[in-house]
Write a structure and sequence with these properties.
With 422 residues, the protein is of the alpha/beta class. It folds into 2 domains: 7-24 and 235-421, Enolpyruvate transferase domain (UDP-n-acetylglucosamine1-carboxyvinyl-transferase, Chain, Alpha-beta prism); 27-232, Enolpyruvate transferase domain (UDP-n-acetylglucosamine1-carboxyvinyl-transferase, Chain), CATH 3.65.10.10. The protein has 14 helices and 24 strands. It has a 4-stranded mixed sheet with strand order 22-23-1-24, covered by helices on one side. Strands 2-15-17-16 form a 4-stranded mixed sheet. Helix 1 packs parallel to helix 7 (195-205) and helix 5 (129-137) packs parallel to helix 6. The longest helix has 13 residues, at 237-249. The structure holds ligand EPZ. Ligand EPZ binds at residues 28, 31, 97-98, 124, 126-131, 165, 167-170, 193, 195, 307-309, 331-332, 374-375, 402. Ligand EPZ is lined by residues 28, 31, 97-98, 124, 126-131, 165, 167-170, 193, 195, 307-309, 331-332, 374-375, 402.
């Protein structure tokens, strides 16, 4: 096993970014698609998978569940056969919360599952009660003890099943079980985030019958068995939004090749309101800074609203945009950790409850910064790109979980950024 490295990024700010960047496959879409492979004994091939720590954790978890999988050149192959095991252990689930969505596919195949509770994380408590209640409504007996979720099913209950909240993970979990539940399951109050229709598309390549994904009511006709998946992961709307912010914050011009424009309407709209020139071209989404930006207030919402995963990036941009605005976080209860680090760079941000009042300053100044979670990390890198002097972003392992070759992509656009071992 490789020793755990605490790499850092060293950034010298002030370079305008110019050029083309290819948007990678979406982490949050790839993960449930990899776990969907459990639903079949046949080989599954998932393509356009980003090379990220979370993907490697998912591949390791598939192995521990008895399904041999390997990742190479943007492709995960989950081998046919193998005996599926019902337990997802703590050491892997604790590394990545998204692992909890193995509960649905394991339960669908084996009628029993034992999945470690993922625990909280920096951005909030992140309980799994919505996951558990949807399975109870589908007929499972679910209990929690000794840090594990224990679930078993005697007889699945099809019919109308309401989710307590349109949780992305709970919808993925329920959908992956419903595809093997006899009869017609109708999931109501389902999440509409693009990761849901993407997962439904993946499941359809396996033979699943799903209708209405992308709306809050998803109908599923359960099948007796499914074949292997052949699926290409959609591009990452959050990575694209992060590079769009990089163009804006450095007063640059960046072409986002393969950007999933249809998934980014609220983000594109917000940047346009602030004054960025963002347009679709045959080669991708072109983001050009043309004039000083204006502050625009925003609130995070479920899809199609402005995504919580772009909130930190927006805060950085607003912190150097003259004028005042308010940023309200309505999805997670503790997702302003980046603000503390931005204050140390000279930003003016006042937080009350779930709202941050931001007053733009002329420039931030570089200093050492500590990353607390994935998107906060992306925001701090963006801050470094615009700051005066040198910014050292510590603990970039959070970024490596969700951004493929971030520093290489930024360097190719002209940024002065390098990775150093600390
Ligand atoms: C997914 O998390 C994403 N992760 C998150 O991206 C994203 O921020 C989030 O959806 C919202 O869009 C993956 O897809 C792997 P939720 P998920 O269940 O499914 C609360 C990133 O940076 N909740 O829709 O976990 C929860 O605490 C990550 O890439 C419960 O209370 O999100 C949150 O406040 C971070 N009980 C809200 O609901 C539950 O049982 C929405 O969570 C489940 C969720």
């Amino acid at each position: 096993m490789k020793p755990f490295r605490l790499d850092a990024f060293v950034i010298r700010g002030g370079k305008r970014l110019r050029g083309t960047v290819r948007v990678s496959g979406s982490k949050n879409s790839a993960l449930p698609c990899l776990f969907a492979a459990i639903l079949s004994d046949e080989e599954s091939v998932i393509e356009n998978v980003p090379d990220l720590k979370d993907i490697r954790t998912a591949v390791a978890l598939l192995g521990r569940l008895g399904r041999k999988a390997h990742f190479e050149d943007g492709r995960v192959v989950v081998k046919a056969g193998g005996r599926l095991k019902p337990e997802a252990p703590y050491d892997l689930v604790s590394r990545m919360r998204a692992s909890v969505v193995v509960l649905g596919p394991i339960l669908a195949r084996l009628k029993k599952a034992r999945v470690s509770l993922p625990g909280g994380c920096a951005i909030g408590a992140r309980p799994v009660n919505y996951h558990l209640s949807v399975f109870r409504r589908m007929g499972a007996e679910v209990s929690v003890s000794e840090g594990y979720i224990h679930a078993k099913v005697k007889t699945w209950r099809a019919g109308r099943v309401r989710l307590d909240f349109p949780s992305v993970g709970a919808t993925e979990n329920a959908l992956m079980a419903a595809v093997l539940v006899p009869g017609r399951t109708v999931l109501t109050n389902a999440a509409r985030e693009p990761e849901i229709p993407a997962l439904a598309d993946c499941l359809r390549t396996m033979g699943a019958k799903i209708f209405g994904d992308g709306t809050s009511t998803i109908e599923v006709e359960g099948m007796e068995r499914l074949s292997g998946a052949r699926y290409r992961v959609v591009a990452d709307r959050i990575e694209a939004g992060t590079f769009l912010t990089a163009a804006a914050i450095t007063r640059g011009s960046v072409l986002l090749k393969d950007a999933p424009v249809d998934h980014m309407a609220s983000t594109i709209d917000l940047f346009r309101k602030a004054g960025m020139d963002v347009r679709e071209t045959p080669d991708g989404l072109l983001a050009r800074w043309k004039r000083p930006l204006k502050p625009v207030s925003v609130k995070t919402e479920i899809f199609p609203g402005f995504p919580t995963d772009m909130q930190a990036q927006w805060m950085v941009l607003m912190s150097i945009t003259p004028g005042r605005c308010r940023i309200t976080e309505d999805i997670f209860e503790n997702r302003f950790l980046h603000a503390q680090e931005l204050l140390r760079m000279g930003a003016r941000i006042d937080i009350k409850g779930n709202t941050a009042s931001v007053e733009g300053v002329k420039q931030l100044s570089g200093c050492p910064l500590m990353v607390s979670d994935l998107r906060a990390g992306a925001a701090l890198v963006l801050a470094g790109l615009a700051a005066k002097g040198e910014t050292k972003v510590l603990r970039v392992y959070h970024l490596d979980r969700g951004y493929e070759s971030m520093e290489k992509k930024l360097r190719a656009l002209g940024a002065d950024i390098r990775r150093v071992a600390v």
